[in-house]
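SAMPLE LOG
Freezer: B-3
Tube label: C17
Construct: single chain, 246 aa
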Amino acid sequence: MSDNNNDKKVVLVIGAGDATGGAIAKRFAREGYIACVTRRSADKLQPLVDSIRAEGGEAHGFASDARKEEEVTALVEQIESTIGPIEAFVFNIGANVPCSILDETARKYFKIWEMACFAAFLSAQAVARRMVKRERGTILFTGATAGLRGASHFAAFAGAKHGVRALAQSMARELGPRNIHVAHVVVDGAIDTAFIRDTFPDMYARKDQDGILDPEHIADNYWFLHSQPRDAWTFELDLRPWMEKW
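STRUCTURE (predicted):
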């Protein structure tokens, strides 16, 4: 890494969608971090990158398939060698696809696990290997209630999210003593997105009552986790609207 990069800090968001992932990238960018964001299609990232730059921040978008080890390795190497050290990492891939266990296919079950769990392992491992050399860093996983209990018709998603939670627990226990904060965020409830607005209008109507999650408020909590002093690190944080049943 060149000397010019030594004073820079990068947040890497894997799965920077239009809602939560994008909001997290913007939140860190407002704090002076260089936002490196990924999706499988780089074109879909351009509005987010443009928005961060318009606010005076620095952002870079990358097309990358987090299920492919060689692509993950190349992505982390490119960022670390040409942009700056990854100080904060966020894994935000969802893959929430309901299906009866009687109709679920092996192919789809495996794909959901690949996207939501295996990709988390690959990318978090690649970043952790860099962080341990610097003896600092934050690794944050976006979880769901499916990681705590398996609901009817969500066997594949629940299995993947249980796996992510277990991965986070193991990494926290191993890497915490090496000054790397690993945390798991349970996001429970509908999020203010165009998909919810257009597909579930009754649910979206709760917005006026603070009944669905605001992506910016979710992002504030990710920044809060990253900013915590290590004598009071949170491992698991639950985020849900006040009216959400749990």
